[in-house]
Design a protein that fits this description.
alpha+beta; 252 residues; 10-stranded mixed sheet; globular; two-stranded parallel ribbon
């Protein structure tokens, strides 16, 4: 499966300099409904929770039960972080415009298999990968109540208005551990080296990646200059990545 990752030049420099892929938490994505439960599933869950309220005599616990869905959603939007790719055989002019501004953007061409192999050692089996399903959240009836409680499953649903992105998503938890870096790019501290430390108060994490495995091809923006292409070529050589840097086949 051919996939593409469109990046601004600044984000590309970070990727190469850190040797790590950025995973952003759902709560900071453009789609404000990332990680939100489809409405029909929500209604079923709310009905079940209203029945549960009768189990407890005190208002405090009843109030907690009433907030189960909302609290679970908010926790999931902080807990789950994702890295997103576009599934297409060829480059997309719209994706260049949306995610790699100007003439200095870069796109990585890879495959789903290469993405998995590049990251799996760092993610320590705590990850999920799959195509995003584009739904109408008001009418979607394909999620059970059990699935509705699972933040990592809700992370693979998006509104239909985003369907043109044809997204493959790899997700993990917002923990810093061996194989991960802090949001500022710093390595795990002594405590983080010993286990999975919650980083949900931050915007996400970097996950160390084998870039030679990940990057099958690298294309500069349709309007990129030859000197910009050469600069990227030098950057790659310095970190031991040897592959031709090609200009996009699309017209500027």
């Amino acid at each position: 499966m051919v996939i593409w990752r469109y990046l601004t030049f600044q984000k590309f420099v970070k990727l190469i300099g850190l040797g790590a892929v950025w995973f952003a938490k759902l709560g900071i994505f453009e789609d404000v409904e990332e990680g939100i439960t489809p409405e029909l599933t929500r209604q079923k869950m709310k009905t079940q929770h209203r029945e549960m309220e009768a189990w407890f005599p005190d208002e405090e616990r009843r109030s907690q039960i009433r907030r189960f869905v909302e609290d679970n959603e908010q926790y999931g939007r902080d807990l789950i972080v994702a890295n997103c790719w576009c599934i297409r055989e060829q480059e997309s002019k719209d994706m260049w415009t949306k995610y790699a501004e100007g003439n200095e953007g870069v796109v990585i061409k890879s495959t789903a298999g290469a993405l998995t192999r590049a990251l799996v050692q760092s993610l320590k089996n705590k990850w999920w990968i799959g195509k995003v399903s584009y739904i109408d959240r008001a009418t979607h009836d394909g999620m059970s109540m059990y699935e509705g409680h699972q933040a990592h499953l809700r992370a693979f649903l998006k509104g239909r208005s985003y369907s043109d992105e044809s997204e493959l998503r790899i997700a993990t938890m917002n923990f810093v551990a061996p194989g991960c870096l802090n949001p500022d790019g710093s390595p795990p501290n002594e405590k983080q080296q010993k286990g999975f430390i919650d980083a949900s108060s931050g915007p996400g994490i970097y996950v160390k990646a084998n870039l030679s495995t990940l990057i099958n091809e690298l294309h500069t923006a349709p309007g990129a200059s030859e000197s910009h292409r050469a600069k990227i070529d030098v950057m790659l050589s310095k970190v031991g990545i040897r592959l031709p840097v090609e200009r996009s086949e699309l017209t500027p």
